[in-house]
Each structure stands twice: as structure tokens, then as C-alpha cells.
Design goal:
single chain; mainly alpha; 0% strand
């Protein structure tokens, strides 16, 4: 039979473990065996061999403990592992199987680590399990740390938990400087900063980023600004996008104007759609009449049916 690596050291270790286990004062036999081997060896090379043997040995928890004790310790170790992996539900189940109370101090410590690492939701969950309420100061502290690192999205998440609007606006400003328009709009929206949203929209409009401008203006409820965006799209000849902007602004006359353009170009279905968005019943009926005279019966029927619903 092939000899296992470090077998001679493992055998000696096994014998020493059995000897130490016979000592009632030894609560941690494997650790005591390790300490003994370090003391009795003088050569570093030999010491390393013993330590490798100890690692390879992987003895059962103890020979003298019953299976319930073994399972208990195994489940606790499993719970600790799940906790480190942020699998909190599984950790709780493992501790329950071990028959022990939820180790609150472990969850609090884990929450502290998660909060420092800006894993906000996991931190909240860990503290909740431990029955601890996170202070406003802790969230602010976490947000400030993230802000300094340039993690503005994470900072917003932390500040939002405690309604720190001014701090969120600062994040929005930083994101705008970085050119992250999506992040900027989200930050200003969470802070309820309408003026900042309009400023962001203005920046986007000047840059020609009309779609972003529309998004910012819509969240700010800036109808006149939305109409300006629609006009810009209208001048470009992009009537579809113009209609979307006008619809968001509730600009009935502008929608009718867009519908007229479509109708003149022969895009009857789009014209009817624009009139419908404007609630222009008479315009839809007129379109139906024209289609009927042209022999475009399908379009005529579509127009009359839509007019009937208004």
C-alpha cells in the first residue's frame, strides 16, 4: 500500500491527540496537540512537517463526543460560512439546526463590515436579524465614505435611507460632472430636486442629447421645456419623437400640428394616432372622411372607430 504524505508525522500526531484527549483539562485537544508539537520540535523543517501533517490529518471533532455534538459544531461552522457568503437565510437555518440561538454579535459584526463595504441592503438585513436599528449617523458615514471613493451611486443609496436630500444632490452634481446623465437624473429625482432636474435637462438640450433632456424635464414636470424638445425634434423632421415630447407635455395643439404633417405626407395611420393623443375628435373624423373619399375604407373605418371612443 502506498504511504500517505507525511504519514509518520500524522501517526505521531494521532497518538498525541489521543493522549491529550485523555486529559480532562484539555478543552481543545487539537490545538493543544499543535502547541505540543511546536514546543517539542527544534528544527524548523521538522516543525513545518508536523504542521502540514496537522492540516492533512483533519481528525473528526473528537472521538469522545457523540454524533449530536458533532452535528452541532458542523452546523455552526456551516452557519458561519453562509454568513460570510452573505447568504443570511441559509445561515439562520444552519444555526437553527445546530440548536443554538442566533449569534447576534456575529450578525452585527457582519452588518458593520457590509455597511463599510457599501452593501447597504445586506447590512440592513443583518442588523435586523440581530435586532439592531441602524442610526442615521451610520448611513451618513457610509454615504460619505462612498462619496470620497467616487462611488456616487452607492452613496445615493445610503443617503436615501435617511432622506439626506442635500447629500443626494451633491452626488447628482458629481455624477453630472462625470457625464453620467442616467445617474444624475436618478439622484436628483430621489432628492425631489426639480430645479436641478431642469438644469440637467438644459445641459443635455445644449449638448443635443434631446432624449435625456426630455427625461429630465418630464421628471421635473417642466411642460414648456418639453415642448421646446418637441419643437427641436419637429424641426429635425423627427415627427415621431416630437409627438412623444408633446404628449408628455400635454401640448394638444402641437400634437394636432404634427398630425397634420403626417397626413399631408400620406402617413394616415400616424396622423390619426397623433390626433387621438390630442383628443381631437373632429380631426379624426375629417381624416376618416378624406380616406373614405379616396377609397381607403380600412383607414376610414379605423378613424371613425377611434373618434367614437373619444
Amino acid at each position: 500500500m502506498e504511504k500517505q504524505p507525511h504519514q509518520e508525522y500524522r501517526d505521531e500526531l494521532s497518538n498525541k491527540l489521543k493522549e491529550i484527549r485523555g486529559n480532562p483539562d484539555s478543552e481543545t485537544p487539537q490545538e493543544d496537540a499543535k502547541e505540543h508539537l511546536i514546543k517539542v520540535t527544534t528544527e524548523d523543517e521538522t516543525k513545518d512537517e508536523y504542521l502540514k501533517a496537522l492540516e492533512l490529518h483533519r481528525e473528526d471533532i473528537t472521538e469522545n463526543r457523540n454524533i449530536d455534538e458533532k452535528l452541532k459544531k458542523a452546523f455552526i461552522m456551516q452557519g458561519d460560512f453562509f454568513l460570510e457568503e452573505n447568504r443570511l437565510d441559509k445561515a439562520i437555518k444552519a444555526y437553527e439546526k445546530a440548536g443554538v440561538e442566533i449569534p447576534k454579535e456575529k450578525f452585527i459584526k457582519h452588518g458593520d463590515v457590509c455597511l463599510k463595504g457599501s452593501y447597504i441592503d445586506t447590512a440592513i438585513e443583518a442588523y435586523k436579524i440581530a435586532g439592531v436599528e441602524i442610526s442615521k449617523e451610520k448611513f451618513i458615514e457610509c454615504g460619505d465614505a462612498c462619496f470620497k471613493k467616487g462611488w456616487f451611486g452607492n452613496a445615493v443609496e445610503a443617503y436615501e435611507k435617511v432622506g439626506a436630500k442635500e447629500k443626494i444632490i451633491e452626488c447628482g452634481d458629481a455624477l453630472l460632472k462625470e457625464g453620467d446623465i442616467n445617474g444624475t437624473i436618478k439622484a436628483y429625482e430621489k432628492a425631489g430636486a426639480k430645479e436641478k432636474l431642469i438644469e440637467c435637462g438644459d445641459v443635455c438640450f445644449k449638448r443635443g442629447s434631446i432624449d435625456y433632456a426630455i427625461e429630465a424635464y418630464e421628471k421635473a414636470g417642466a411642460k414648456e421645456k418639453l415642448i421646446e424638445c418637441g419643437d427641436a425634434r419637429f424641426k429635425e423632421g423627427n415627427i415621431d419623437k416630437a409627438i412623444k415630447a408633446y404628449e408628455k407635455a400635454g401640448a394638444k395643439e402641437k400634437l394636432i400640428e404634427s398630425g397634420d404633417v403626417f397626413f399631408k405626407k400620406g402617413y394616415t395611420d400616424k396622423a390619426i394616432e397623433a390626433y387621438e393623443k390630442a383628443g381631437a375628435k373632429e380631426k379624426i373624423i375629417e381624416s376618416g372622411d378624406v380616406c373614405f373619399k379616396r377609397g381607403s375604407i380600412d383607414y376610414a373605418i379605423e378613424a371613425y372607430e377611434k373618434a367614437k371612443k373619444i
